[in-house]
Amino acid sequence: MGSVPVGDSGFCRRFPKGLGFNFGSDGSSSSVVLDQERRAPSRLGGKRVGAGILDAKTAMAMRSHSEAERQRRERINGHLAVLRSMVPCADKLEKAALLAEVISHVKKLKRNAAEINRSYTVPSDTDEVRVEVEGDVTIAGRLMVRASLCCDNRPEILADLRQTLSGLHLKTVRAEISTLGGRMKNVLVMTSEGNFSNLDKHLFVASVHQALNSILDRVNSREDLLPRISFANKRQRISPF
């Protein structure tokens, strides 16, 4: 077998390119180029995969934000619909005007409820003392006080009220008494002549409140000293069955 010279360029040209033969400096450079071409697609593919993951996360975050915003708008619209149902003729009002109208309407309802509560003298289940000034002192020239006492129905309460009011030098203008289920409510409108400043007015109201509270305390203390009524003394409800 004959030997082939390594440096014979004609022999090297007989083989096709790309078989990985490294002969001389030309072969080394071509091998480096092939290695770079093999690695380049893997780098580009990794970048494309990473970019795809980021795009998916961004799209998911945008969808989540959009869904949260949609739910928030639905809640607001639901609350506004409830507010519109509370106020008459509020279908075409804007949000700010609707809120102002609702606040005004609620304040009006509270005033009406307070007026109704004051006009009715139905006793409640809890002991209560309320004292407030009626009217303007500077215009009327006198102090008008409205006081209410709600407690258990006891015969001695009227005598205690009369004695207490005489000690305060008050003139009774109107008196209302109502009873229900063993409870009673006394509503008194009283007046006192004389000049009253704002400080005197508050002190006077506080003194009336304290006097009525003392009546309530005496009633409760007497009730604690009374003996317990046995069931035999109570009226029995007879059932036909």
TrEMBL record:
Q: Name one GO molecular function term.
A: protein dimerization activity
Ranges for the BHLH domain? Answer: 60-109
What keywords is this UniProt entry annotated with? DNA-binding, Transcription, Transcription regulation
Domain of life assignment? Eukaryota
The leader peptide range reads none
InterPro entries recorded: AIG1-like (IPR045847), bHLH_dom (IPR011598), HLH_DNA-bd_sf (IPR036638)
Q: Which SUPFAM superfamilies match?
A: HLH, helix-loop-helix DNA-binding domain
Q: Which family does it belong to?
A: Belongs to the bHLH protein family.
Name of the molecule in the record: Helix-loop-helix DNA-binding domain
